[in-house]
Amino acid sequence: MIQVREIITEDVPVINQWRNDPEVMQYLTNQFRYIGLEADRNWFAYYQQHRNEAVRLAILDEGTLVGTVQLTQIDRMNQQAEYSIMIGEKNHQSKGLGRQATQAILKHGFLDLNLHRIYLTVLTDNERAIRLYESIGFQREGIYRKSLFKNGQFVDVMGMSLLRDEYQIA
Fold this sequence. Notes:
The chain is an alpha+beta fold. It has one domain: Aminopeptidase (3-Layer(aba) Sandwich), CATH 3.40.630. Helix content is 30%, strand content 36%. The protein has a seven-stranded mixed beta sheet, covered by helices on one side. A hairpin with a 4-residue loop joins strand 3 and strand 4. Helix 1 crosses helix 3. The radius of gyration is 15 Å and the shape is globular.
């Protein structure tokens, strides 16, 4: 069973290592680029000053930081936010931790933050993630054709969302 908690300053160097690992980044919609530790420290400082715009949680497995799960772009007027997740510790991938973390942040988003809609984007060839999202209740909304330049080519990205009235508490 995982635990989630807000990301803290001490997590930033580990997150920076993951963001600089092409294997970790290959399945994410983020661009791979080398990111200096100071840039990630500045990213974290910005988050600390704008916590009303995002929820950034660390995923812990038996006390070890293994990933992050986030709600960003929080739009209070339209009651929606963008979901993202990264399991950075490769030996913790494909073990169900992503499902647990997703369920935890969805519960927080819908029941505590009063969100109406949580959306995401996923690479269309990330079939494992798409299966996970659909099993939780996310619906496919459409394909953004050749919208992301990744690994030397333009690739398709799928938009998905989950509405509060579709959400099933795990």
